[in-house]
Design goal:
The complex is a heterodimer of chains A (110) and B (117). By secondary structure, chain A is mostly beta strands. Chain A contains no helices and nine strands. In chain A, 0% of the residues lie in helices and 44% in strands. In chain A, strands 1, 3, 4, 7, 8 and 9 form a six-stranded mixed sheet that branches. In chain A, strands 2-6-5 form a three-stranded antiparallel sheet, with no helix packed on it. In chain A, strand 3 and strand 4 form a beta hairpin. Chain A starts with 8 loop residues before the first strand and ends with a strand. Chain B has 117 residues and is mainly beta. Chain B is built from no helices and ten strands. In chain B, strands 3, 4, 5, 8, 9 and 10 form a six-stranded antiparallel sheet that branches. Chain B has a four-stranded antiparallel sheet with strand order 1-2-7-6, with no helix packed on it. In chain B, a hairpin with a 4-residue loop joins strand 4 and strand 5. Chain B is globular. The chains are: A mainly beta (110), B mainly beta (117). At the A-B interface, strand 3, strand 7 and strand 8 of A face strand 4 and strand 9 of B.
């Protein structure tokens, strides 16, 4: 299985909104609403910020939102804050009953 | 609160097997959910390795399937992973996590395993 495709990096200034993409295929992202997003700070374990495409776990800021169109999912962070600077990974369930991560996107807050 | 704690050998000789355990507290692994292993080579991204359903069905990354075995130890409330024929490419931080189809909700802190070249 191939990794989902994410841009290597995105950046934004404090207070701005940014979006990052996660492109898969009709066998994963496009097939199920089982797309999730993880935030990872250096040296830390990943933390889920969005699951089932657009649901937010308890305790995650409402500045994080998710969506999907066809084979591409997106994570949007509004009101960018310095603490949002991290690596972000998407994940999807697949038609072969496996899970696949994206390559990761490094978010820089300027 | 669900907590997961990985443990492993730290250093594995090339061609030898790598064995990891994940101790779960705050939740019985037989009550529900999937239990998975994910790894992250230094400076690189996350790679899903394998998952076991609480009823015992196993799922493997096709690229690793021939070398990986995942299992449950219900008496110890632990999940185990064995990866045979280790190479330098297996050097990574290994995480265990509880998950559903669409969410990996609880993660361990990770354990670094090094396989020298």
């Amino acid at each position: 299985q191939s990794a989902l495709t994410q841009p290597a990096s995105v950046s934004g200034s404090p207070g701005q909104s940014i979006a990052m993409s996660c492109t898969g295929t009709s066998s994963d992202v496009g097939r199920y609403n089982y797309v999730s997003w993880y935030q990872q700070h250096p040296g830390k374990a990943p933390k889920v910020v969005i699951y089932d495409v657009n649901k937010r776990p308890s305790g995650v800021s409402d500045r994080f939102s998710g969506s999907k169109s066809g084979n591409t999912a997106s994570l949007t962070i509004s009101g960018l804050q310095a603490e949002d600077e991290a690596d972000y990974y998407c994940n999807s369930y697949t038609t072969t009953s496996t899970w696949v991560f994206g390559g990761g996107t490094k978010l820089t807050v300027l | 609160q669900v907590q997961l704690q990985e443990s492993g050998p730290g250093l594995v000789n090339p061609s030898e097997a790598l064995s990891l355990t994940c101790a779960v507290s705050g939740y019985s692994i037989t009550n529900g959910f999937f239990w998975g292993w994910i790894r992250q080579p230094p400076g690189k991204g996350l790679e899903w390795i394998a998952t076991i359903h609480h009823r015992g069905t196993t799922y493997y990354n096709p690229s690793l399937k021939s070398r990986v075995t995942i299992s449950l130890d219900t008496s110890k409330n632990q999940i185990s992973l064995k990866l045979t024929s280790g190479t330098a490419a297996d050097t990574a931080v290994y995480y265990c996590a509880r998950h559903g189809e669409g969410i990996f909700d609880f993660w361990g802190q990770g354990t670094l395993v090094s396989v020298p070249s």
